[in-house]
Amino acid sequence: MVEMEAKHRVSPMKLKTLAAASMGAAALVAVWAAACRGTQILNTTSSNDVYELSADIVYGENPRQRLDVYRPSSSGAQPAPVIVFFYGGGWREGDRGMYEFVASSITREGYVVVIPDYRLFPEVQFPAFIEDAAEAVAWVQRSIAGHGGDPDRIFLAGHSAGSHLAAMVALDPSYLKKAGGDAGRLVGFVGLSGPYDFLPLDEGSYLQELFPAATRDASQPVNHVRDSGEPPLPMLLVHGTDDERVWPKNSRNLAAAAREAGGDVKLKLYEGVGHKRVAAALAPLLEFTADTRADILDWLARR
C-alpha cells in the first residue's frame, strides 16, 4: 500500500517519444514509475496555462497544513464546481506540488481544484491526518467563493491513501463538524484505488503503529456509510483489477455497503490495470492508458 519513489531519470522528451511510438500502456507506465519522482515528469508535460494558481494557503498551524488552489483560466462569471483532491503515499509521504498534473487535467474542464498537504506518519497517527483533511475541506467551504468556486458544489476526491482521507471526511460527518464545516453540503466523492476495508493489518507492518488497535474499526470507511443517518454521498469508485498494493475488494466492499445503505454508487473496475496507472492516466501524456479522466468527468457532469 506504500507508494515508492523510483531512482532513474527519464526526460520528458524521451517520454513523449515513447508515447508517440505507441508503446503498450503497461510499458509506458513502467517507464513513468521508474523515473525519479515520476509525478514531476507528468507535471512537466502538463499545461500550466489552463489555470491560475494561489499557492501555499494556510488552513492550520502546522507547516504541513497548507493547500494550493487552481482556478480555471477560462472561468466565467458563475462560480465553478470544486474538486478537493487528496494524494496518496501510504499516509507517510507526498507533497501537493507533485500533483499539479491532476489540477491541470481537471481545471481545463472548468473546475476549481484544491490540493492540500496533510500531516504524515510518523509525526502523527490515525486520525490526525483525517482531521487535517477535514480542516482543509472546512477552509474550502468557507473561502472558495473568493477563488471563483461554488461552496455548494464541492466534490471530494483522492488516490490511494488520499482516497481514504476523502472517504472518511465524506462518510463520517463528525470530522467536518469538529472542523467547523458541514458534510451535508458536500455533493459527491470520487475514490481512485482507495483502501476502504483493509483490516486485518499485516503483522510487522508500520500500519500497526499508524492505526492503533483501539481505533482500527473506526479507521475503515466501509464502517461509516450509515453515520449521517441519510444515504451516503454519491460515489464514483475506480480500481484496477491488477492492483496488488490496495486490493480491488476495497472498492467492491465499499460499493456494496453504500448501496445497501441507499447510496448512489458507480463502480468502475479496469481490467489489467495496476495501482499507479489509475492515477497516472489523469495526465494528458498518459490519458490513453486508462479511462480514469473520461470516467471522472462524465460522472461529475451528471451530478
Descriptive notes:
There is one protein chain. The protein is an alpha/beta fold and about 300 residues long. Helix 8 (about 205-210) links the parallel strand 6 (about 185-190) and strand 7. Mean pLDDT is about 90; it is low at about 1-30. About 50% of the residues are buried. Helix 3 runs parallel beside helix 4 (about 100-105). Helix content is about 35%, strand content about 20%. It has a single domain, classed as Alpha/Beta hydrolase fold, catalytic domain (Rossmann fold), CATH 3.40.50.1820. Strands 1-2-4-3-5-6-7-8 form an eight-stranded mixed β-sheet, with helices on both faces.
Mean residue pLDDT: 89
Helix tally equals 11
Question: How do the strands line up in the largest sheet?
Answer: 1-2-4-3-5-6-7-8
CATH topology heading: Rossmann fold
Features:
303 residues, alpha/beta, Rossmann fold, 8 strands
Secondary-structure map with pairings?
Layout: H1 12-20, H2 25-34, H3 38-44, E1 51-58, E2 66-72, E3 80-86, H4 100-107, E4 112-116, H5 128-143, E5 149-159, H6 161-171, H7 173-179, E6 186-192, H8 207-210, E7 235-240, H9 249-260, E8 265-270, H10 275-280, H11 292-301
Parallel strand pairs: 3-4, 3-5, 5-6, 6-7, 7-8
Antiparallel strand pairs: 1-2, 2-4
Compact summary:
This protein has helices spanning 12-20, 25-34, 38-44, 100-107, 128-143, 161-171, 173-179, 207-210, 249-260, 275-280, 292-301, and strands spanning 51-58, 66-72, 80-86, 112-116, 149-159, 186-192, 235-240, 265-270. It is α/β, with parallel strands linked by helices. The protein has a single domain (50-301), classed as Rossmann fold, CATH 3.40.50.
